[in-house]
Amino acid sequence: MSTPRTYSTARLILKGVIIAVLATAAGIWSARLVLQRPAVEDELSATRFPVARDVQPFELVDHNNAVFDNAALQQRWSFVFFGYTYCPDVCPTTLSVLNSIAQRLQDVDEDIRFVMVTVDPQRDTPERLAEFVTYFNGDFLGVTGSDEGLQQLTRQLGILYQRVEQEPGSGNYLMDHTAAVFLFDPDGRYHAVFSPPLSAEKIAIDFRKMLQDTQ
What we know:
The chain is α+β, with helices and mostly antiparallel strands and 215 residues long. It has two domains: 4-36; 49-214, Glutaredoxin (3-Layer(aba) Sandwich), CATH 3.40.30.10. Helices cover 42% and strands 24% of the residues. The protein is globular, with a radius of gyration of 25 Å. The protein starts with a helix and ends with a helix.
């Protein structure tokens, strides 16, 4: 008959064997995940989803007073940035980068559009947006709308924005906001995101690679 000490030792050995087997299995599973990842993902500076994400219904208006909704994202690739016209630094810089991207992709045989959606709809009218975005590129599109319409889009994309008062009661404020650039495919799906710092060269290269993968 086994003594209590012998029985305890046997249990410890058995536990060790089980742990070793589980660790080996976990290692094999992790290795498979790494090996099964598309190689192109490692070459991109963008974050691209393995499967593009559908966008739930939303409705805004562009600077031409036309409806900007899910249908407006279809039939073309869309680079979308969320900012506002009173932005002192990040937004003008980002629009300049987007203009450089547009220049770099002129030879691409695809319909590509660049859009800035305002996170400050109280001040950014279609007229003001038209003047602002077309200063950087005449083909750029500005989009505004109601708070509700804006939240319909921003919430599902994880975009954050917040009003920051400069002086209490002065009415002067800035907007803290997500500064990434979002890419939507011709099916109107959320395809990838480019996080700051933004490089026109890298984004243009990434986009060309993603085009190759979709052909």
